[in-house]
Design a protein that fits this description.
By secondary structure, the protein is mainly alpha-helical. The protein folds into 2 domains: 9-79, Winged helix-like DNA-binding domain superfamily/Winged helix DNA-binding domain (Arc Repressor Mutant, subunit A, Orthogonal Bundle); 82-224, Four Helix Bundle (Hemerythrin (Met), subunit A) (Up-down Bundle). The chain has 10 helices and 2 strands. The radius of gyration is 20 Å and the shape is globular.
Length: 256
Amino acid sequence: MEENVTPSVIDVTNINEKVYDYIKKNITTFQFPSGHKINIKQLSDTLGVSQTPIKDALFRLAGEGLIDITSRTGTYVKSITEGDIHEILQTRLILETAVIEEIAGKITDEQLQTLKDLYQKSYSLVVNPNDSQNYKTFMEYDSQFHLSFFHIMGNKRLIHIYKNLNAHMQMVRFRLMNDALGKLPTTDEEHRMILEALCERNVAKAKHAVANHIHRLEAICATFRKDQQNPDCEIKAMGGKGQNEPPKAIPLLASM
């Protein structure tokens, strides 16, 4: 007698990594908002996989500081406080200025071309308000541009650290700017200044350009936070989904 088996939504090859990527992307893009309770059985049914890879993914994400797991209340997407935002940007400043100082004087023409290509893609992309798809594409180009500094340096541990940090930064951006998804007004110009300094192999100029870019981002984040009543409470998404409205997950196949 044949059993009725629910077909898996995803290719089971490397299933643990794919489930991890799926959950992480839904967290970092605010589809699973802060405080969202993650229902393991529901995810298992949705994805057509067993609960084991889901639990493995959740433990990894807890280690990265993206979710909280408690034996009494369950598993929730972690909140981000004012202090968290400051620490994230402070860490970015320390890491990126150190890496740019290391690579600026010896970057190759081929490596510069990679950065130029990423810059051009980002610059050419039109992101209208509330255009979530193009905003996600822009965020990917932006992340790749900054991550390229670490790949050029070639330190695998720093690459891992920065990727984890960037996931937190994406959460901040989607949550604070959810009602007006678009490029920050100075991003293209600040990236151009970083690229210009690297083309000149000017270490001091490149370091200053990166620091200015991150300081400007912190100032813009502060502007979006002005209307928050309690500085140390959870930051709520502007114009986001209500607490009682279930979030719509990113389609799994599109996220792979």
